[in-house]
From TrEMBL:
InterPro entries: Glycolipid-bd_prot_put
Record organism: Prauserella flavalba
Name under which the protein is recorded: Glycolipid-binding family protein
Length: 193
C-alpha cells in the first residue's frame, strides 16, 4: 500500500469539537518530510493558536516535533524528539511512558492522522495499533494515546479507515485522499483545500 506524494499545502475546517481552521505545508527533503502548519481555534470559549514543525523520516516515522501554542495567558513551546525506534525525549527529558510510539498526534491537528496511515501502509482489510505521543492543545502536555487503524475496502481514489482511541471512547471512519491526507474526520474536521 503506497500513497502519492502529498501536495505542497492543505487546509481543514475544524467542526464539532471546536471551531477553527488548520493549514499545513509539506516540504520533501533527503531524510523525509517537514510538515509545518498552524491551527487557530476556539474551544470551550477559549481561543488558541497551535503551530507545529514536524520532521518525519522516509518511512513517515516521527523524528522531531516543535509545537508552539499561544493563549491569552501566554505562549509555550514543547519539543519532542524520537530516535525512530520508539524512544522519546520531551523538552530534553527522557519520556519512558512513550516507549513504542512512532508517531506524534497533535490534539489541535487533523493533519497528524496522516502519519500512522503512511507509516503503516496497511493493505485493505488489515488492522494495526498505532500508539502516539499525544500533545494536548490546552497546555501542550504530552501523554501516550493508544489508537487503532483498520483499512477498509478502498472506494476509488478515496481510502477509508476505521479509527479508534480508547481513552476518549471515540471511534469513527476517516476518509483519506490518494496522498493519505484526511478528507473527512467526523466531528473534528473536513478538508477544504
Amino acid at each position: 500500500m503506497s500513497f502519492a506524494a502529498p501536495p505542497a499545502s492543505a487546509a481543514w475546517s475544524h467542526e464539532g469539537a471546536r471551531s477553527g481552521f488548520e493549514v499545513a505545508y509539506f516540504e520533501p527533503g533527503a531524510e523525509g518530510y517537514h510538515l509545518r502548519g498552524c491551527t487557530t481555534a476556539v474551544e470551550h470559549d477559549v481561543p488558541w493558536i497551535v503551530g507545529y514543525d514536524i520532521a518525519v523520516d522516509r518511512t513517515w516515522t516521527t523524528r522531531r516535533a516543535v509545537v508552539t501554542a499561544r493563549w491569552a495567558t501566554g505562549t509555550r513551546t514543547t519539543v519532542l524528539e524520537a530516535d525512530g525506534e520508539g524512544h522519546w525525549w520531551v523538552d530534553g527529558a527522557e519520556a519512558g511512558d512513550l516507549d513504542g510510539c512512532l508517531d506524534v498526534d497533535l490534539e489541535s491537528s487533523a493533519m497528524t492522522n496522516t502519519l500512522p496511515v503512511h507509516r503503516l501502509a496497511l493493505p485493505p482489510g488489515r488492522r494495526a495499533s498505532a500508539p502516539a505521543a499525544y500533545v494536548r492543545a490546552e497546555d501542550l502536555t504530552v501523554e501516550r494515546l493508544e489508537q487503532d487503524y483498520e483499512h477498509l475496502v478502498d472506494n476509488g481514489r478515496r481510502q477509508r479507515y476505521d479509527y479508534s482511541a480508547r481513552a476518549f471512547e471515540f471511534t469513527c471512519t476517516l476518509v483519506y485522499d490518494e496522498s493519505g491526507l484526511v478528507l473527512s474526520y467526523p466531528g473534528i474536521a473536513a478538508r477544504t483545500a
